[in-house]
Fold this protein.
Amino acid sequence: MSGVGKGVTTSSIGMLLKARGLRVTALKIDPYINVDAGTMNPTEHGEVFVLADGDECDQDMGNYERFLDVTLARSNYMTTGRVYRSVIERERNLGYKGKCVQVVPHIPLEVIARIQEAARAADADVVVVEIGGTVGEYENILFLEAVRMLKLAHPEDVAVVMVSYVPIPSKVGEMKTKPTQHAVRTLNGTGVHPDLIIARSNLPLDRKRKEKIALFCNVREECVVSAPDVESIYDVPLNFEKDRLSNLLLERLRLSARPTDLKAWRGFVRGAQRAAQEVRIAVVGKYFDTGDFVLSDAYLSVLEAIKFSAYKLGVKPVIEWVNSKTFERGIPEGACADMHGILVPGGFGESGVEGKLNVIEHARRHGVPYLGLCYGMQLLVIEYARHVLGLPRANTVEIDPKTPDPVIDILPEQKRLIAAGHYGGTMRLGTYPAVLASGSHARAAYGASTVEERHRHRYEVNPDYIERLEAAGLVFSGKSPDGTLMEIAELPKDKHPFFVGTQFHPEFTARPLHPHPLFTGFVRASLARSRGEA
């Protein structure tokens, strides 16, 4: 089933092999027809992660980067749409020299070629490939065919790891292996046989269940690896090593490696486990509603970035998900009183915007540490223009194209694309530099005068209003090298303990062993408020 933990398993395997001294890269295969994840609704699919080269992709790519502590590229990501488009374009350009181009073998061969290209680009000893979806779906059958063909051609170089859920029905009270048996037989029907089975469950597998899965799924007992629920996903690789997962993979792939070096990772996990003092952070967004449930995956990288910085400071973050729609008519008395910090992440559209603006005004007036990301910075500028600059109808043209004060406007080149009906991949995407002003929160956090960060947006602070906003006290502490694009907005330290917005997405580069400095500055200010120091 989806959400069982394939992405975390892939990330953990990659991290463990890297800890054994191997050069490792990771690749995600998504079975949907979309060319990339950029046009998908976050409440249905989760966060859209952006790579340094601007590729919009699945949130699992973020986990790969965080666990492996590497920067990946578009060659590490593919979708059905991307694969078919490449094959069709090659056929149209006579790349197949007049052959009849067929679904099999040409689609699987394109998949294999992309896997090999990812290996070459990273000069990798091992490529860890995750196939999205579930066994038995029509969507991923061609990717499984690629695995079959690849393993047939290179039998000693390919290991297949299957992640399967082993339920414990509450009314039965016994761990059931039959779903895994059926899943393996379905996988066998595609010509692919697992070398290892990662058995996900609420509790660790006992010996009897391991024996049963081994017997009926045709794997050695030691190749059934227990993956019980844990407090944190960052415990997963350490848990895998209890069943000698990296040794099993090295043996299967006939690779030699150094002893495992997990010292830094264990230190990070211990720090997270020991954190006791709480700091309460409100994440005010709108991508939460999915039936009767809350989908925090829409802001996955933001959540993880908060954790990394909190653990670095030795505190436990308590995240409260706040739907901005509940504050559309204002903030009730005491509603945010127990929040030590407020964060407004990125987003699109007008839904819930007035609620976000009310929260931002509350944070500014009451000295609550605030961090606004992308849209969260644009709304910071709008709120300031309305209530400090005295422009009550100030807005972004995304919401109100006829606003008399478009303090946030669209880039001219984007206007031409949207007028032509082109939306996918048309934003300012990927890594861009920013120059930081001395004496600012941003400069103090980074400890550098120039930084590079990842973007995903169409709209910018309107240059026609910058001088007036600065005269009213708002500081644009980060700008593009030519000074035309505003990258960071903030209030001076003597006016507010921490009131910062970034046009870019700093959460995309936060790592467990290397927390992002702006998040650390924000959590530090929130911690000071929790202690009554600000």
Q: What stands out?
A: The radius of gyration is 25 Å. The mean pLDDT is 93. The longest helix spans residues 103-122.
